[in-house]
Design brief:
Helix content: 40-55%
Radius of gyration: 30 Å
Number of strands: 12
Mean pLDDT: 89
Low-confidence stretches: none
Largest sheet: 8 strands, mixed
Order of helices and strands: HHHEEHEHEHEEEEHEHEEEHH
Strand content: 15-25%
Shape: rod-shaped
Structural class: alpha/beta
Amino acid sequence: MPTLRQFEAYLTVVDEGSFTRAAQRLGVSQPGLSQQVAALERELGASLFSRLPRSVALTPTGRALLPHARACVDAAARATTAARSVAGTSAGELRIAVVYSVGLGLLPGVLTRWRADHPGVGVRLLEQNSTESLTAAMTDGQADVGIGPTPSGWRGRVRVLGTEELVVLLPPDGPPDVRGGEIALSRLADVAWVQYGAGHELAGQLEAAADAVGFRPKVAVRTEQIAMAPQLVAAGIGPALVPAGIVPASFTGRIVRPVPRAERELAATTGPEPDTLTSRFVALLARRAVLMPPHVAERLS
């Protein structure tokens, strides 16, 4: 297989019309340049140049190779430029795998800042329903960084972002009465909940929280979209357990902490040796991640 160095040697001889001038341009010895061209000729099984007294001329094989060799060298140059641009964070694409119930609250503000600082970098979101599917996406190399509940046994790097509270949303009116911004989860044992589909990260969270106080939550409606839950609660369908970060400021229902509390640790994961672009995003995420929005904290106090 011809090498890029061999193609560069051949093209320089073509451009300079002389082995001597080509060697001077490349800063190598003439014998060394001749060896590169000779190796390329052996690889192709044909001569590329006719050696004339004061210059060289291309053979039919040399003329046939010319456009393809230039295309290879030009493509290598573009690839190098693209890679260096990404390393300098001026271009490229960042692939982010994120558990949807985390990304909805966490990412919009972070991505606003990221896009302002890196307008040439595209972002692709790979949204996942669960920590398991997030870990699988990262293991398969589909994403540069994963964002979700801290995985166990991850062999790459893990940057803990903090602990996120899960809160209970209640319809605007009706029982139960709430005082002090908290409610014993057992008081909601007999009501029907806004729940999530099987395999959804929050489906397991609600079942575990309810099981800890001795009941199995009834189902009023199931949704796959976490953003739909606050709307269903506000419409009076029933309570829902959601991350504090996804509650919109416009939510018209009541927001309370469950007793016992429901929490989860969030983290950003990468491979063992993340590149510059990925490392800068993780650093920004760690600085700007908001796990408890002020409008939710105010209503819980």
